[in-house]
Write a structure and sequence with these properties.
The structure is a homotetramer of 203-residue chains. Chain A is mainly alpha-helical and 203 residues long. In chain A, 76% of the residues lie in helices and 0% in strands.
């Protein structure tokens, strides 16, 4: 029952984050007195904002999916879990800001590096939450088994860390790394599902 | 239990989409130093924004209703369903943008065509989600029976597809088609309700 | 189970409406280059916006409370109830707009009348929802008994209807009526609670 | 079941408050025609806004955590509890405004005092909600036992009250007090958890 409310609050925050990001995609206002008819060219300056929105949408989707699975395998909620969860939500709440900043500046170096920094901090916050849950459930818990070696969770921060300085060499390399990490996670992670399925089949 | 969280997250996103659309209906600010008293004329320029809001509100309402019924008949949630659902939410999240753009430009051709394009993509995303759920539940599942020939689901994308080029002939024809499709869905779809009722009455 | 989702969606929309209303209370930006130190005088122009926010907050609170009790006493959800509920949410979603308009124009006549019009439409939508639920549950249902003569629900629209033209005589009279109706509903309505308590005590 | 909906609505409002606060962290727009490349200096003016966001995020987190525990120990929901809860949400809904005002004015005296005033009112509203719940559950209820002497709940308003005039002496002293109170609450409050654990172990 306690867990339900933690999930509901996190769902609420994630749902709002994913939706207010779209507010950065600002409706092009017709200039007063102008007889300019809007066409597809009007949307062209919005393209980088749109693409950074798509990437961030996928990232929030990945976080929601993994958060969903992770909490599904947790049995009880402690004060430490509540705060580790809020810490994760804090860094995710900065996504709309960094997404808008990258998009409006056509993937300039500093915004791209700051985007990576927030991704890095969110990844670290996720790792802390995972460790906090495992610590409270026991090392042989369902989550510990399911997470296993967690190579994705360990590789991602390393890649973000590499992307931050690389953004000053070429922001396209950094962006490429962010897209690569997103694809890495999009490939379905059946680990937890498999462990869950096994448990259900055991007598 | 897993399904609950998918529903809760979708409800959250849909609730926010439906509500931030109204933010495009911007309060007319009194000009500083002006002694102009606001009257109903002040609201007149907002009328197209208001009408596009009404149409989009009805569309989000239809999606919420159908989503509600569709997930009600699903028994379990897979990774594929989670992502098909996020894909649908992505296209729906663009509604506030296209609604505002159409409204502010008094139903100009390109915004009207783009509005139709997002409707089309949302309809396709809904169809993919439906297929993904049926695939995971089995062909003789409750949803497969309930959906049946799904003529509405098949006709709607065709009509949107026709409306997009027609928007450049007359944006009123395109708008008329969008309103027609909305009315088509507003007529209560008792298919799923009927199948559900039958199952409950069976021993 | 179906009812849960209707409640969750309505809660989401009402929570967002109540919270985005506060966005009209815009942070007074320090003018660039100005050495002006903000003080309580800076907040003075926001007072009418604040007061209209308080009134609208109370109205949304009343709607949430009553909606809560009404749906609590409903047993099943039909397509008609879903749409009657969306219709109510539509009018409530216009509260942030009318609240901001009244506040920014220091309770001018037309905004005050439009505020009352939206209150009137929401009251009518609530009445339709109530009738739709009673129709689906049966005349001797818990809700029908609990609502009883429903003098508040019948008096409120009449008062709003009177306030709309009176706003053009004096917007303070109209505002006074809106405050009076809010107070009328704030006085706890123990009807449904009482009927619920009786049923629980019956064998 | 009634309690669930109160929690869901409060979660929704708190999730939105915590997320719209970040909207005050406005994306620095590149000036049109400017060849200025954004760098970390571009973010420097946002630092006070960011820091006030961090503090307010922690405060909303504390309120959510305590609200979570408090309602967990409540058994039934009365009309009085519903309104005491809405009263608390009202004051919390002003956090985004005061947070933005303090941040944009680089912790000027009046905004800092107003920030403290809203913290004070929220603390009083929380106390009223706590008393209302205890009154409806009985003096020997789980919550009454858990809350105990409630020294934190009594000390906090006193400190806010001291900080408000002190903001006019030095806004940094006032800010220091707000940070101190936040840290006071961040230290995990195991009182309710302990009482809950004891009850579960009792036969």
């Amino acid at each position: 029952m306690e867990k339900n409310r933690l999930e509901a609050f996190s769902d609420g925050v994630l749902a709002i984050i994913i939706t207010i990001m779209v507010l950065e995609l600002k409706v092009p206002h017709p200039e007063p007195g102008s007889s300019h008819v809007p066409n597809l060219q009007t949307l062209k300056p919005l393209l980088p904002v749109f693409l950074s929105y798509v990437l961030s949408f996928i990232y929030v989707g990945i976080y929601w999916n993994n958060h969903h699975h992770m909490l599904h395998s947790a049995r009880r909620v402690t004060g430490g879990i509540l705060w580790a969860n809020l810490h994760l939500l804090f860094w995710l709440s900065l996504f709309p800001f960094t997404t808008g900043w990258v998009g409006e500046n056509h993937v300039a170096a500093t915004p791209t590096a700051v985007y990576g920094f927030v991704l890095l901090m969110a990844a670290i916050a996720y790792y802390i939450l995972q460790r906090t849950i495992i610590a409270s459930q026991g090392r042989d818990s369902m989550l510990a088994t399911a997470v296993g070696s967690d190579w994705k969770g360990k590789l991602s921060p390393v890649l973000y860390l590499a992307a931050i300085p690389l953004a000053f060499v070429s922001s396209w390399i950094a962006s490429g790394i962010y897209i690569f990490v997103a694809l890495l996670w999009l490939i379905p992670d059946r680990r937890i599902e498999r462990v869950l399925a096994q448990r259900e089949h055991q007598p």
